[in-house]
Design goal:
Chain A contains 17 helices and seven strands. Chain A is α+β, with helices and mostly antiparallel strands and about 475 residues long. In chain A, helix 13 runs antiparallel to helix 14. The chains are: A alpha+beta (about 475), B mainly alpha (about 325). The interface between A and B is medium-sized, with 21 and 24 residues.
């Protein structure tokens, strides 16, 4: 397995800083707490320096560690010089820490259901993959089957797994896992809108469903997936040729799909280089709430990953690359559209290619604008370049959240001007909240009570 | 792999001479002090007593380490390590000649200031972790003085940065090819030197070592090898700050060219070494000359005497530069 050591170190620093931060608030001795605070500042400064922000990092060290923390430490040392006292009293505060941790974990688990999944999507972290790989090689058995691309490890199904491990499976019963709402959720995970947007919320470009793209036809690729989209299977069963297929399923197969491999060179070039070229964020649907969240991939989404992604995105059935000739009946009709390779000065990507299916829009950040792609960019290569690249011509599907089948022909297309913010909540969000809100609120209150209880107990003990 | 080896060798090629310089700094101090006090000084170990530091180090290393029972052991050991690490890391950005630096770091000055502010932790931790009143009071005194005088140090360096327009030591040296900064900035140099005397806890600011009051200051409870680390750190800081002074105010490795050097001998390093030796001697001379100042007087002197003056210079120097159209 290839490891990007830069990312690896960054991630270790991240984990360390979290540990230091926890240690700061759990240390019983104030002097030790401040020493952990120094550790925290140090890791943050190192993080900044490794990110190339030398001056900010050094200033951080100079100001926070060199000045502020010294003064705090100086004062604390002058106030509490009695080490013995803190050693004696400390256990009174720290004896309930295990309880506090376990409660916090439970609390977190419940929150993970309703917060955006990107927060807990570890799959883009080197350290996660590394540990996973170590476990695989050392113990020679499969870990829990996490979807490395799109599912978070705390998706609704896996949350059940974890709750079961904790003996709390009753919180989400089997019925809940298999009910209609969750099927809708799953469908939305695969079929729902999937947006990309650069980090600075300015130039938004939108992709219909990148998770599907990244999975399809990648049997030989390093990510190890082999997956056909149901629409493809359906098309093959119907005996459609690729034009018919593209007409019927325009959302899934814009121009890039049946071109030759425009990213092959780029992919080769980047495959040996773990360089971080792109700052990305994607907007993603939370499968449970239906809320759409931005997912920052940041530096983890390095060139290698991106090129693999682009490779899969544009050349799923290329005979030369995947042996796709066996599967794709239409691959003989490649190369019938012109490719003007225009390299973006901004992101270093041939955006022309992207423009045809990932339109580049100068619109502000979601949630005001939920945009998806209309029909057939395929037969109008100029469609997304220039004249049509404005609001009026950008469309979205209003009912993608209610799409219980994979048949996108049923989707209606409306101008973006008709779009409203709370589209998701009307459909999936409402139904989910209707189901779980009471349970969540009740359990939250219970857990809050459990968190407060130790403090109250301690106070009572002290009063006695 | 070979590259890592090269890096290690590079590091060693700086650290080993630096440690040797530190060792000889101690014997120079003792001999110079002895000469000023009409004594002989160390004269037995080796020729003219030059091997005395090695004998001292050997003695301290083989001594038993005694740690107070109530001490915080981790910090007790960590403190001297921080002290020596910080003082040795400072050598990483010192240019010994044209292109002769471990790292020609663009933020060299900031790096130095950061490290010097880290040095306080060694003192603070040592004083607190020993669980001894003498050590603790010594630590607090020393910290208060170091924090205060760090302001003067940083402010004096800011004036240099304004003149040279760079944080990089090499560029600061290049900026002094026309004239050393000591000439236009002599008052700032005095402030700077006072600040580094306090930063390195040297006489007359060595109040944490006030033997009559605090036994030995923050390292009262430290013995044997961990004491050696403090000792090394202190003298390493002296040599380091001496070389930084010669870089900031005396043109570093530059010297007006009197003759063309066709040999392989790197005159530049020797020039820097000589300049550094002058300042090292100044440290010793100060110790032999000045009496120790009372603690509160030191702090008052810093905040009410030095700080306004150095602030005035921070305003004055750019004003002059702008007035004469030297900077826009």
């Amino acid at each position: 397995m290839k490891i990007n050591f830069f990312n690896f170190i960054i991630e270790i620093l991240t984990v360390l800083s979290i540990i230091f931060a926890l240690a700061v608030i759990t240390s019983t001795n104030p002097v030790i707490a401040i020493i952990f605070l120094i550790g925290l500042f140090l890791t943050v400064a190192l993080y900044l320096i490794l990110m190339g922000l030398n001056f900010i990092g050094l200033s951080y060290l100079l100001v926070y560690i060199g000045a502020i923390t010294v003064l705090i430490l100086f004062i604390v040392m002058m106030i509490s010089t009695d080490i013995l006292h803190t050693v004696e009293v400390g256990p009174d505060y720290s004896k309930l820490l295990p309880l506090a941790y376990s409660i916090a974990v439970l609390f977190l688990l419940l929150f993970l259901i309703i917060i955006p999944s990107f927060i807990i999507d570890f799959s883009s972290f080197e350290i996660y993959n590394f540990i996973n790989n170590v476990i695989l090689t050392v113990f020679n058995k499969e870990t829990y089957n996490f979807n490395l691309i799109n599912d978070s490890i705390f998706s609704l199904q896996t949350i059940y797994y974890y709750l079961n491990k904790l003996g709390l499976g009753f919180l989400l019963s089997d019925n809940n896992l298999n009910n209609e709402t969750l099927n809708i959720a799953n469908n939305n995970l695969n079929n729902g809108p999937f947006y990309y947007q650069p980090l600075f919320n300015r130039d938004v470009f939108v992709e219909y469903n990148s998770s599907t793209y990244s999975l399809i036809g990648s049997g030989n690729n390093p990510t190890g997936f082999y997956y056909w989209h149901p629409t493809q299977i359906e098309a093959v069963n119907k005996g459609l040729n690729h034009y018919e297929y593209l007409n019927n399923y325009p959302f899934y197969f814009p121009l890039g799909w049946y071109s030759d491999n425009p990213f092959a060179v780029f992919t080769e070039w980047t495959s040996n280089k773990n360089i971080n070229l792109f700052l990305w964020s994607e907007i993603k649907t939370n499968i449970l709430t239906g809320w759409i969240h931005s997912q920052y991939l940041g530096f983890n989404f390095n060139a290698r990953l991106w090129s693999n992604f682009a490779y899969n995105l544009f050349t799923p059935f290329s005979a030369s690359n995947y042996g796709g000739a066996n599967y794709a009946p239409w691959n003989t009709l490649n190369n019938d559209l012109p490719w003007n390779t225009i390299f973006s000065p901004v992101y270093g990507l041939p955006l022309h290619n992207l423009n045809l299916n990932l339109t580049w829009l100068n619109i502000p950040y979601y949630p005001e604008f939920l945009v998806e792609f209309p029909h057939s960019p395929v037969y109008s290569p100029n469609y997304f370049i220039g004249t049509h690249n404005s609001f009026g011509e950008i469309y979205h599907t209003i009912n993608s959240f209610n799409n219980t089948t994979n048949d996108l022909l049923l989707n209606t297309v409306e101008p973006v001007t008709l779009l409203h913010k709370n589209l998701q909540i009307q459909s999936l969000g409402q139904s989910i909240f209707g189901r779980y809100s009471l349970l969540l609120i009740l359990s939250s209150f219970l857990l809050l009570l459990a968190m407060v209880a130790p403090i109250l107990l301690t106070r009572t003990e002290k009063n006695n | 792999m070979l590259q890592i080896l090269y890096l290690l060798l590079e590091g060693l090629s700086v650290i080993v001479p630096a440690l040797l310089a530190v060792a000889f700094m101690t014997i120079i101090e003792r001999k110079a002090l002895a000469a000023m006090q009409r004594r002989v000084g160390p004269n037995t170990v080796g020729y003219y007593g030059v091997l005395q530091p090695f004998a001292d180090a050997l003695k301290l290393i083989v001594k038993e380490t005694v740690i107070p029972a109530q001490a915080n052991k981790v910090l007790f050991y960590l403190a001297p390590v921080i002290a020596i690490l910080v003082s040795l890391l400072g050598w990483a950005i010192i240019p010994f000649g044209q292109g002769l630096a471990l790292s020609d770091f663009s933020m060299g000055v900031i790096y130095t200031l950061t490290l010097s502010s880290f040095g306080i932790y060694g003192v603070l931790f040592a004083g607190w972790s020993a669980n001894s009143k003498y050590a603790f009071l010594g630590g607090l005194r020393s910290t208060a003085a170091m924090i205060s005088y760090e302001l003067i140090l940083s402010s004096a360096i800011i004036v240099i940065i304004i003149l040279s327009g760079s944080f990089n030591y090499t560029k600061i040296i290049d900026a002094q090819q026309a004239i050393w900064f000591i000439v236009p900035l002599f008052p700032v140099f005095i402030l700077f030197f006072i600040a580094i005397l306090a930063e390195t806890s040297r006489t007359p600011f060595d109040l944490q070592e006030a033997e009559s009051e605090l036994v030995a200051g923050f390292f009262t409870e430290h013995s044997s090898i961990i004491f050696v680390l403090f000792f090394l750190a202190e003298y390493s800081s002296i040599v380091l700050f001496s070389s930084i002074t010669s870089i900031l105010f005396f043109g570093g490795y530059n010297l007006p060219e009197i003759f063309i050097n066709d040999t392989y001998l790197n005159i530049q390093s020797i020039v820097l070494g000589i300049k550094t030796c002058v300042f090292c001697f100044l440290f010793v001379w100060f110790r032999a000359t000045f009496p120790r100042v009372r603690f509160d007087q030191i702090i008052v002197f810093c905040w009410t005497g030095l700080l306004p003056v150095v602030m005035a210079f921070i305003i004055l120097v750019p004003c002059i530069l702008v007035a004469f159209d030297l900077i826009v």
